[in-house]
Amino acid sequence: MPGGTELDGKVSRQVESAVKEADLVLFVVDSTVGVLDDDQAIAKWLRTSGKEVLVVSNKVDTDKREFDKWEFLSLGLGEPFPVSALHGRKAGDVLDEILIRVPRREGDDEVEVVVERQGPNRTPGIPRVSIVGRPNVGKSTLFNRLVGQDRAVVHDMPGTTRDSIDTVVETPDGPMMFVDTAGMRRRSRVDESTEYYSFVRALRAVDESDIALLVIDATEGITSQDQRLAERIDASGSPVVVVLNKWEMLNADERAEIDIEIGRKLFFVGDAPVLKMSALTGKGVQKLRPVLQDSIEQYHRRVPTRDVNRVIARAQQQQPAPSGGRVLYALQGASDPPTFTLFVNKELPPTYLRYLERSIREGFEFGSVPIKIRVRKRAE
Ligand SMILES: Nc1nc2c(ncn2[C@@H]2O[C@H](COP(=O)(O)OP(=O)(O)OP(=O)(O)O)[C@@H](O)[C@H]2O)c(=O)[nH]1
Ligand SMILES: [Mg+2]
């Protein structure tokens, strides 16, 4: 430990021995004063110690101060964790991170790591189902059906819904939040500013949702805008359920035609369920229930660490990572959505991570639920 006076010397020796015995070092810095010379000296010393270090930037009392943490990236010890020790702000997050980083020992297996995904507008533990699609396809009609009352305005005029509205519904499978969104059209056609903001909010609803119902007006077939929307939802990582609405309007030929179209035009959403229904009459809407139930169950699921490691080991045996990369240990750090942490000896290429993600998905039959993979590098 760098330092000058006698007291410094004593402190240093204590710190040195504490660090030597530690599995993880929390390096606390003061976000209100920024990086000091001493911080830099300590960081340099910590980097040579070979220990796992978590930089905790303290005194982050408000969201606004959150940016102050970035200055501490220059310490070369990874992304700092902002907290306010005084107010206990984000203390839980740091605890979660510690549990993930500290290696488990024999007999340690009962330690459960719970990291709850939280963000703006999120109610922890309640899955969000967003209803999205082009204008006038019947999103609000479906929303009203699902929540069991006429909460959203329905009108035969594109652009009726301007802002997202959400409602929590008690279902036999537990509480579920449904979000009705504004119809989305191609960006080039979005000229009015209110419409632009509706569009942005609808996209945000997708990003924050756990399942997206993509509603398509079957009487118009699958348009390029539907395709683009499907791509966008897919990119957000939300599992998609395709709803072919206004189905009661189609004759037999038209129905056969759209069945073919689906495979051709929406192939990239993979094996997303496709449901045909009439939100107006209610026919077929009940088919959503088991599909949603299934997604929700997967969403809450937690896989035992032993099993995760077995699946990862098998995947690595079948196809080892290139140039000596290896997953040393893996665990499911969080559910809602399932989040897996892989401890690796060196960086693994994205293609290999996707392979591992697929192995986990198939190994535990996660279906189309989004899985998050976090990677932590550590010495063997
Ligand atoms: N025939 C038929 N009409 C439907 C069906 N679902 C909705 N509609 C009608 O389609 C029109 C638009 O319905 P909305 O629910 O307002 O559509 P929306 O997708 O919310 O529209 P925006 O909010 O403008 O994006 C209304 O006239 C509905 O009655 C359906 O299953 N069959
Ligand atoms: Mg609407």
UniProtKB/TrEMBL annotation:
<dbReference type="InterPro" id="IPR015946">
    <property type="entry name" value="KH_dom-like_a/b"/>
</dbReference>
<dbReference type="InterPro" id="IPR005225">
    <property type="entry name" value="Small_GTP-bd"/>
</dbReference>
<dbReference type="InterPro" id="IPR006073">
    <property type="entry name" value="GTP-bd"/>
</dbReference>
<dbReference type="GO" id="GO:0005525">
    <property type="term" value="F:GTP binding"/>
</dbReference>
<comment type="similarity">
    <text>Belongs to the TRAFAC class TrmE-Era-EngA-EngB-Septin-like GTPase superfamily. EngA (Der) GTPase family.</text>
</comment>
<protein>
    <recommendedName>
        <fullName>GTPase Der</fullName>
    </recommendedName>
</protein>
<dbReference type="InterPro" id="IPR031166">
    <property type="entry name" value="G_ENGA"/>
</dbReference>
<keyword id="KW-0690">Ribosome biogenesis</keyword>
<dbReference type="InterPro" id="IPR032859">
    <property type="entry name" value="KH_dom-like"/>
</dbReference>
<dbReference type="Pfam" id="PF14714">
    <property type="entry name" value="KH_dom-like"/>
</dbReference>
<dbReference type="GO" id="GO:0042254">
    <property type="term" value="P:ribosome biogenesis"/>
</dbReference>
<dbReference type="InterPro" id="IPR027417">
    <property type="entry name" value="P-loop_NTPase"/>
</dbReference>
<keyword id="KW-0342">GTP-binding</keyword>
<keyword id="KW-0677">Repeat</keyword>
<dbReference type="GO" id="GO:0043022">
    <property type="term" value="F:ribosome binding"/>
</dbReference>
<feature type="domain" description="EngA-type G">
    <location>
        <begin position="127"/>
        <end position="300"/>
    </location>
</feature>
<dbReference type="Pfam" id="PF01926">
    <property type="entry name" value="MMR_HSR1"/>
</dbReference>
<keyword id="KW-0547">Nucleotide-binding</keyword>
<dbReference type="InterPro" id="IPR016484">
    <property type="entry name" value="GTPase_Der"/>
</dbReference>
